[in-house]
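We were asked to recover a plausible sequence for a given structure. The inputs and outputs are reproduced exactly as logged, with field labels preserved.

PROBLEM: sequence recovery
POSITIONS: 228
GIVEN STRUCTURE:
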């Protein structure tokens, strides 16, 4: 190994602990390709993030966040709610999209601030019918999985990150395929289409309290989908 490789290796290790990668890598503008998923760094400026957060608080007032149980009986660490015609949920009976939330009512409408992002980046002329809102508190994570509960898997998924940084991992269409990771920052937008639509992905951890947008810390991820 040459000196250059050693220096780069040491820098990469230190940049992790000092968060330098985040600072260097998140200039607004050019899209970043991560295993076929396209990430638009800082797509939303601080005002747009704050406006969307206010809209999501309204969603959560109408349909409170819940910690769902997987079919296998594990309680998810991420808290979830939804907007749109249908919302994603899970219990011992299985993963599914439901027309009603836990209190029995219809889900609130997808906020215009969120819909605008889909229309700008999805590349399709059909609107999403489901908007999953994930809340990551301290220690929350999401293990590697595929999104396969939608009726037609040819539509893209659009993901918006708000609040604390989250370490996103994405691989291929087999669980054992190699993966790459990147910190998703507040205001980042990811588009999963084509081959990346069925890629395994997850959130390994968050940097709790380091985001600035949420006064009490935490990460919010909004995913838009055509579910039915
Ligand atoms: C890659 N959410 O809700 S967003 C999920 O940050 C989910 O909360 C994560 O995975 C989060 O299902 C990751 C990025 C993302 C979303 C959907 C995808 C990546 C994806 C669908 C296919 C491939
Ligand atoms: Fe997912």
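RECOVERED SEQUENCE:
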């Amino acid at each position: 190994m040459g000196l250059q490789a050693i220096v780069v290796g040491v820098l990469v290790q230190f940049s992790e602990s000092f968060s330098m990668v985040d600072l260097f890598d998140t200039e607004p503008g050019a899209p970043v390709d991560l295993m076929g998923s396209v990430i638009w760094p800082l797509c939303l400026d601080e005002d747009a993030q704050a406006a969307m957060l206010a809209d999501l608080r309204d969603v959560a007032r109408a349909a409170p966040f819940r910690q769902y149980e997987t079919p296998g009986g594990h309680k998810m660490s991420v808290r979830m709610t939804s907007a749109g015609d249908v919302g994603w949920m899970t219990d011992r009976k299985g993963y599914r999209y439901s027309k009603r939330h836990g209190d029995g009512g219809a889900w609130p409408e997808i906020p215009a601030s969120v819909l605008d992002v889909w229309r700008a980046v999805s590349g399709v002329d059909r609107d999403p019918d489901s908007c999953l809102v994930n809340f990551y508190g301290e220690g929350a994570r999401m293990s590697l999985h595929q999104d396969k509960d939608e009726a037609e898997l040819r539509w893209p998924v659009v993901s918006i990150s708000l609040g604390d940084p989250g370490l996103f991992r994405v691989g291929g269409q087999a669980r054992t395929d190699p993966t790459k990771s990147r910190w998703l920052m507040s205001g980042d937008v990811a588009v999963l289409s084509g081959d990346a639509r069925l890629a395994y992905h997850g959130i390994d951890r968050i940097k709790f309290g380091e985001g600035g947008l949420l006064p009490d810390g935490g990460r919010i991820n909004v995913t838009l989908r055509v579910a039915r």
